[in-house]
Inverse folding.
């Protein structure tokens, strides 16, 4: 297995293109729990170009009824990215000041129930700017959200078969 770089520019460009729209290749989960992690996964896929087709614990989307929990679930995406030792993107949890464009921030309650997965798209005057679905946004300052806790998910690279 070899590691290739994660294409952060492609992830951010995807976020810019689809922040206020919906890619018809993917189901819109807005009315059934929210579309934020689905959108985050789409952005990550734009930068990784590889899915992990391991049933249940991988990270892929074929259709609304054929996808892994990690594609659309906040905690499941975190679990996949930080625990993935196989094909596809892999990441580590990090402090917000170590994030780069194309990384993910997850917002949660003070007790650690994480519920939102915005995508980092840039920085301005020391502020993190994000894109998100459900409440559609692009270049929105992270500090304009109300949350109890935030964790950064820094994507380290993408594994692919030789």
């Amino acid at each position: 297995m070899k590691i290739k770089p994660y294409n952060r520019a492609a992830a951010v460009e995807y976020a810019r293109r689809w922040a206020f729209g919906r890619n018809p290749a993917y189901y819109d989960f807005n009315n059934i729990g929210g579309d934020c992690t689905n959108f985050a996964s789409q952005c990550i896929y734009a930068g990784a170009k590889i899915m992990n087709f391991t049933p249940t614990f991988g990270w892929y989307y074929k259709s609304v009824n054929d996808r892994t929990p990690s594609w659309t679930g906040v905690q499941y995406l975190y679990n996949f990215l930080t625990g993935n030792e196989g094909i596809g993107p892999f990441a580590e949890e990090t402090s917000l000041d170590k994030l780069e464009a194309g990384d993910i921030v997850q917002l949660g309650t003070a007790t650690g129930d994480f519920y939102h997965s915005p995508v980092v798209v840039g920085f301005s005057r020391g502020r993190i700017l994000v894109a998100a679905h459900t409440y559609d946004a692009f270049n929105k300052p992270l500090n304009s959200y109300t949350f109890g806790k935030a964790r950064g998910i820094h994507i380290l690279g993408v594994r692919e078969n030789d």
